[in-house]
Each structure stands twice: as structure tokens, then as C-alpha cells.
Write a sequence for this structure.
């Protein structure tokens, strides 16, 4: 699959390549800078660094991003990475995927989380093998819960720590 950037009003979602993950794991931003993109000083976040080895392993196998890894969230006006969004792997046998996202702290509260999540959900729904998009967030993370609700996800469960969300792909006749 030849992935294209996803462009919204204020953002560009850029799929992460093997070269980018390896560069970030080596503590370098050279591969991103080669694309003409700057990096916010607070990115990559600790959460991003935690998932990088898994994404790198997946990309080492496939070589080409499938879109079900993660995407850098780039602010158009400054061409700066301010967060990332993506999936925890390809759809399972039931067509389920799980989405996660994060922004650097100073960019939160401006609608960019919603804008990026809406764009990536639209992309995922356009994929034939996706039937259900899932997410979770901490019970006390009210901003994330609001974003998940605003994009149309429904709460399906909760435990003492997390709220679990789902969006079932509409079936058109």
C-alpha cells in the first residue's frame, strides 16, 4: 500500500517509516528533518518512546507502513510534529483495531486531538478490513473522553481505571 499523508484544515498526518522509527530509537530526528519537518522539544513523548520498539519490529517485517502503525501529527503552519496517532497493529480476524493518540502538553485544548482523531478514523473506516475501532482512556482523562465521544465513539465498558470505547463501521447498502 502506498500511503499518502492525511491533510486536514490545520494538520498533516505523516505515516512513520522504518527509517524514522530507527532514527528516533537512536535519539536522532534527522530522518524527520530531512522531510522538512521540525520537532516540538517535548516530542517524542515517553508514551511514544515506549511503543517505538514494537512499531520498529513491525516495520522491519513489512518494510512499508500499512497505516496501522502510527502517524506523526504535524501542525501545518509551523511544520512541527506536535504528537502522534495510530493503531496498535493491523485489524484482527474480526476487523477490530485499537486507536491511540497523544499531543505534547502545550498543544492540548485547541481541538487538534479531535481533528487528528477524526481524520485517522475516516482513513480507517475507508479500509475494507476494518469493522470496529476501539479505544480506551483513563477514567480521569476527561479531555480524551470528550474527544472520543465527539468523534462518535460509544462507551462500552469501564473498570476502576479505564473507560473502553468503540465505533462500529457503518454499513451502507
Amino acid at each position: 500500500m502506498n500511503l499518502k499523508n492525511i491533510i486536514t484544515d490545520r494538520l498533516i498526518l505523516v505515516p512513520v517509516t522504518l527509517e524514522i522509527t530507527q532514527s528516533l530509537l537512536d535519539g536522532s530526528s534527522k530522518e524527520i528533518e530531512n522531510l522538512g519537518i521540525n520537532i516540538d522539544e517535548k516530542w517524542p513523548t515517553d508514551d511514544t518512546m515506549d511503543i517505538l520498539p514494537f512499531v520498529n519490529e513491525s516495520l522491519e517485517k513489512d518494510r512499508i507502513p500499512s497505516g496501522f502503525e502510527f502517524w506523526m501529527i504535524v501542525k501545518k503552519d509551523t511544520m512541527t510534529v506536535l504528537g502522534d496517532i495510530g493503531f496498535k497493529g493491523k485489524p484482527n480476524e474480526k476487523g477490530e483495531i485499537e486507536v491511540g493518540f497523544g499531543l505534547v502538553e502545550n498543544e492540548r485544548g485547541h481541538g487538534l486531538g479531535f481533528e487528528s482523531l477524526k481524520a485517522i478514523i475516516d482513513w480507517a473506516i475507508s479500509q475494507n478490513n476494518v469493522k470496529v475501532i476501539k479505544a480506551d482512556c483513563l477514567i480521569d482523562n476527561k479531555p480524551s473522553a470528550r474527544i472520543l465521544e465527539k468523534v462518535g465513539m460509544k462507551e462500552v465498558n469501564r473498570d476502576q481505571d479505564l473507560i473502553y470505547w468503540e465505533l462500529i463501521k457503518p454499513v451502507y447498502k
Summary: The longest strand covers residues 80-87. Strands lie at 6-7, 11-15, 38-39, 70-75, 80-87, 96-103, 132-138, 154-158, 162-168.
